[in-house]
């Protein structure tokens, strides 16, 4: 038989796999999806086998040195999915496969010591445990007897440390028992649970589905019985009971012997949501998100791979969870921008979910009150995903009433700029009197957004990013929200030396202070990136609000997402138009989504809800339709804009970013890339079908010290877009003059 070869993806930014020969001694134990150690140039790398074959490639082929796994880390369909991600998003295969695995498994560096075997990265945790007990008739002290009795009440293996803590005894007692031959101790693998040990499975009320929920559930159930790819959009207003449908659908999937994957937005994986899943499915549930420790994530991943957990609830990268026999994928809040990875590879978890569904022949459900424009368009005009609507709230609860306060008028009335309008202030007071709860949204953290010299007009700007520094009162520092640059507050203007320094604009910290002065008796908490930095603080803040210890919760868009707090009857939105100022074609859509979602937090219980939106642009269509919470009307206006300016869904979009320094050189590199693209466009497409725009300075023109230029490609033909990009990148890597490679974002979610 001819020799065996393996194609290996290495964790480097290289757009290809590499072929190695497989020594006979390894032939039997090697499978696609296993890690191998390979020579690469002058070093060694850990790579992942993507395929085995018997045709050699041209040139000399080096042998694989070692196999690192017996069981593949990725199943054949997942491997296929990873290679699809690499090709669709024009990402290096090694990078695409790396993000599918728990952190560290496909590491970039391997230190290889001549005499030492390779350390296979496999972060299990060992801990000492009592693994065996015998009943020899040996004389024991009273205390020893007691400990033996306590041990025998537990199931083996019993972890030593927690046992000693629980029963309050010293290690020496156990040691004595070991020397007397009563017990045996050994290091065993321990499972790091993301849930506190004391946490029991909660009880939640299971509701009988109402007529609308039942209709949709029955459709889902029918599709489940067919075991083939199908996609569905559940467009349900906030509070219409989508979660209850998901839970029933998963129960039905499990009953059919198949597994379920649920994706939630980054901030959506609150204790509340995981409670529901744990209550319904107990030990079968695994959770995956970035706040878990490396060890916890690894252990969750292993439980899933070993078939111990058949329901996975997780954020973006959970779309790659190694579930076997997958029956359903649910993408909740499918419009949420956290599904798009802003680092390389720039994949979108919703779109990957749809591809996975196709590869594994499963049902894929997308749910949202405010579907992404493309999703809705495809569903209603293209028939896929299948469209299903839930138009009313559970128990016929009304949607909240929305008032818009024109802050221009407010300014004239009060003779000065105010943070809280009179109407909002009075409404908050009313709720506090009635012991109801209030949410305040302001999408800017920190205290003041600009530090301005009143004498010369100078503002304090980040030297790396050329953006305003935000004043943070708790640390008394100026902070750049993009690169984390910190600086003390100058006593005098750094430009003119004058001391008339003034804070402009307000962030969540400032508003919290204002609210405290206005409502000294209320308990006021804040939820933003600053207050959730410490592990567990998100849970604590939401928990305190959920249980009613907090009266007012102020926060950034984090408070808008998915939460179900029945006692919230008022939602206030400050500077609603903030997102509209961004130079991004999704600015209107984002604004509409944010306002509708945050409004959806009001009136979810028995008392009806009210929303007060403060804005300087009350006439903008995003605000107008958010006020009536009318998605269709918003859609009709927005889709016209997209059509006129050839944005998705009418074109496929790619954003190429060239970053570097100095500025002139970076601009030249971007111009060269654009020329190359234009040449390939002429060769492969037509002006009519594809436009190459730029290079232009990116809206965030300088970040972390690098200047940024972007090239935007719009094409009515996705295949051609790919061909042009691929050939251009190919040409770029063959060029003798080195041009800085652009980073390519396919289907970008933002153009900043
Ligand atoms: P959505 O995700 O659509 O915003 P949820 O699934 O959070 O809505 O449901 C809103 C509330 O209604 C939740 O408190 C949920 O427990 C409750 N609920 C859901 N379905 C029913 C039902 N059939 N009968 C009564 N209450 C329900
Ligand atoms: Zn910066």
Give the arrangement of secondary structure elements.
Layout: E1 5-9, E2 18-21, E3 35-40, E4 43-53, E5 66-67, H1 76-88, H2 93-98, E6 125-133, H3 142-152, E7 158-159, H4 160-167, H5 171-179, E8 183-190, H6 211-226, E9 230-236, H7 242-255, E10 259-263, H8 271-281, E11 285-288, H9 294-305, E12 311-314, E13 326-332, H10 349-360, E14 363-368, H11 373-382, E15 386-390, E16 401-406, H12 407-414, H13 422-433, E17 437-441, E18 450-453, E19 470-472, E20 477-479, E21 486-488, E22 501-504, H14 508-518, E23 524-527, H15 537-546, E24 552-555, E25 568-573, H16 587-599, E26 610-615, H17 621-628, H18 631-644, E27 652-660, H19 663-684, E28 690-703, E29 706-715, H20 718-734, E30 743-746
Parallel strand pairs: 9-14, 9-15, 10-12, 10-13, 11-12, 13-14, 16-26, 17-24, 17-25, 23-24, 25-26
Antiparallel strand pairs: 1-2, 1-4, 3-4, 3-5, 6-7, 6-8, 18-22, 19-20, 20-21, 27-29, 27-30, 28-29
Bound molecules: adenosine-5'-diphosphate (ADP) and zinc ion (ZN).
Zinc ion is lined by residues 462, 464-465, 480, 482-483, 485.
